[in-house]
Amino acid sequence: MNGRMFSRRRFLALAALGALELPRLPVVQAAEPVLRSVPSTGERLPAIGMGTWITFDVDRGDTEVMTVRWQVLQEFFAAGGRLIDSSPMYGSAEAVLGELLPQSPGAGALFSATKVWTPGRWMGEQQMARSRELWGLPRFDLMQVHNLLDWEAHLPTLQRMKAEGWVGHIGITTSHGSRHGEFERILRRERLDFAQFTYNLAHREVEERLLPLAAERGCAVLINRPFDGGRLFGRVRGVALPGWAAEIGCTNWAQVFLKFVISHPAVTCAIPATSRPAHMRENMGALAGPLPDGALRRRMAADFERL
């Protein structure tokens, strides 16, 4: 054994003994995904990524649960996904990723994103070093200050780490529509590669200031909570897809919600989270087919408000 709670050897042994029932997933042929460029570096990323809040905070000793998360990663990479976002705030999520990514076909294309979430420069440096250890990576593609916690202490550290090659990009985050005023002031003052905040059909206030400002400042945008924590699905429960959904290649509401988000020209990548392989497949389907234009976006918003 290699010391990990869910090692490849243990996984294969359980499967061979019949102790683990593995669903037989059909092979997915990844279509050419919708790609967006990071303005500061030119890095090209698929417009749908993956979040890990709650969904990957699981018991690493539970083989069946870990196997389902492994299948979620399989679906993600098979469909062309790259960006996975996590945080020390998310319980065991970083450790779970560190165990499953080496066993996931396609993980070589990973764009790794996590956060620093602790007060003080020294504590932040220790936490980021621990995150590298948990993920099993020599560097992160993106390091962000989580929910602006002690950002004035951490941003100089992130800037130094970027200059030294320990991280590829740096940024800040907020969620639940909070602290937009402070977020805007930081975006205007600092030169950042990424900004992450909440945007979905129910919460569109960032269209007024933060999204235009990010574009003006040459800052890539990650969107968290594109399903409003699952509440959007409650709004459409029992409601048939509108006729225009087929025009943009949507076969389910998840794809409608995601295509609305990623069709905004300032959005680089949406990062929905899921614990179900089938839902991951639905999410990644939003990378295929046309995106709504401005007129359809306005109609989507109006139709949603009437629900």
UniProtKB/TrEMBL annotation:
Keywords: Signal
InterPro entries assigned to the protein according to its UniProt record, in alphabetical order: AKR2_Oxidoreductase, NAD(P)_OxRdtase_dom_sf, NADP_OxRdtase_dom, TAT_signal
SUPFAM superfamilies recorded: NAD(P)-linked oxidoreductase
Domain of life: Bacteria
Domain annotation NADP-dependent oxidoreductase: ranges: 48-293
Cell cycle listed as a keyword: no
Coiled-coil regions listed: none
Signal peptide: 1-30
Calcium listed as a keyword: no
Protein name: Aldo/keto reductase
Protein species of origin: Pseudothauera rhizosphaerae
